[in-house]
Structure formats: C-alpha cells, structure tokens
Amino acid sequence: MPKVSVIIPAYNALAYLPETIESVLKQTFSDFEVLIVDDGSSDGTAAWATQITDPRVRVICQKNQGSSVARNTGITAAKGEYIALLDADDLWEPTKLEKQVRFLEENPSIGLVDTWTILINQQGKSTGRIIVSSAEGDVWKQLVQFKPVCCCDSTPLIRRSCFDNVGLFNPDLPFLEDLDMWIRLAASYEFGVVKEPLVRYRQHPQSKSTNCKGTLEAFRTIIEQAFETVPAELLPLRDKGYARVNLYLAWRAINNKDFEQAIHYNHQAIAHHPQLILSWDFLRQSIALALLKRLGSQTYDKVRSLVQTMRRSISTPVT
User: Fold this and answer.
1) CATH number at residue 113
2) What parts of the sequence cross the membrane (predicted)?
3) pTM of the full structure
C-alpha cells in the first residue's frame, strides 16, 4: 500500500494540470499514489489523464459536484496512510512530500503538517511574496480568529485516520470549506509546519475568493457551528474572527476595485473588534484605501505592480 495518497480535484484545469502532475512525479519521496478526480470536466481532462503511463496515477471520473465532493471522492478511494491535497493548478517543490512525511513519522501526536507557500501569478511567475505560518500545536484559537494557519489548500499532509474521526469536507459550503475542515481537525489534533516554502500557489483574477458576500456567509455558518459548545471564556474569540474576516474581505474588495465595499468591510472589522485599529494589518489597509482614493484604481494598480516587481527582484529563488 502506498504511504501517501495525493488527491487532485480537477475541473477544466487542463491548462495547468500537466505541470502540476509533473511536480508530483518529481518528488524525492516516491511511495505515493495520485488520484486525479475529474469533476465533470469538458476540456478533455479524463482523456489526457488516461494516457499517463506512471502506474501510480489513477483517474476517477464523476459528474460535476464541486471541489469538496471531488476531494471526498478521492479521500474515500485513497489507500495511503497519509492524505496530501493538491489543487490542479498549484505546484510542489521536489522535497515537499519527503519533508512532510518525515515530520509526521517523527511526531506521532501531529494530525496535520503544513508548509510555507510561494505566490505565483496566472502565468506561473512568482509575485515575490511568500506566505508563512508559524502556528503549531493547538491552533484552534488561531483558526476561529481567521488567522493564517494552513497557507493554502495544497500545503497540508494529513493522517488518513483524522478524516475517519472528524468526517469529510462539507459539500454544502460553497466557500471556505477548507477553513471548516481545518477547524474541525484542530479541535481534535495538533498541527505542525515545515518552515520552508514548498508549494507554489497560483492566483487567478477571477478566483471564487473574490465573492465577498458568499465568503462572509460561509464564514458565519462555520464560526457559529464552531462556537456551539465552547466554554463561555472563549466566546470573545468569535468577534475577533468576524473582525479579521471583514478585514480580509476589505482586501478582496480592493482587488475587485470596489472602493465603497472595501470601506464597508474595513468599518465592519473595527465594529467587531475596535482594538484591531492598533494592528499593522489595519494600518496597512488604511494606507492602501487612502492611496486608492487619492490615486484612483489604475495608478494604485501600477504602484502595487511596482512593489511586486521589487519583491521578485530581492526574493531568493527556491531550489
């Protein structure tokens, strides 16, 4: 039986999937299977995948039901002791699985091990930004406050037994289904992290994260469920979670060039947790809103692009 099962939900992602699969097959750790779950694609994904000659790769076809159901299909069919999730357009560094498997083998109390993430644009070029997380051990409090723990969906390696305990992904959540899973896992298991950027996360202009209203509604469902049975002394964390998710949505609105919506979410963040006004995150966002108002969206975009170029020029390539 393979040690690791790599689950890749794929829906019309053939433009990126070959490179993604190649990054898996180049792993220095080779005891794995790859389950490509074709979620009703119309771009020839299934036909392409069946031509892969590596016997570790399997293809499962189903009608389109969304990424949560596709992940669940893959997890149910998986044979590995560990489950690795990978979006069809993201990439792994060659030592990703090797370092995470070693971490879980050496730390039997850990249920999930994360890595850091390099952000890349739609063309696969680095934006110069690396998402890091140092959250380890009991991370439930960080998660319900919407603080970054798992850098993206393609970073975690999870023990299969964890899913047997907490269940699979919630197919009724159109947004933040990953956060819901991490919160449920963190209620029962400790988390770990390999503090290296081992995943390349591709950002798309029209990703579903741009839907601010839907994201907030999903967060409300998740957070209210998470706090149903917690002790009274933990209840203040709920307002902190609402504050941080509104701060996040204000950034999304800025990216969507919706200034009024960005101001709305920015004010909602402070309404839920006034102390947030003292944080660097809030100050940085306030500066961005002021620049956006004064310069306009086009000039603001040029300034942001210049900053990203500067980041790329000083960032150290990952080998």
Assistant:
1) 3.90.550.10
2) none
3) 0.89
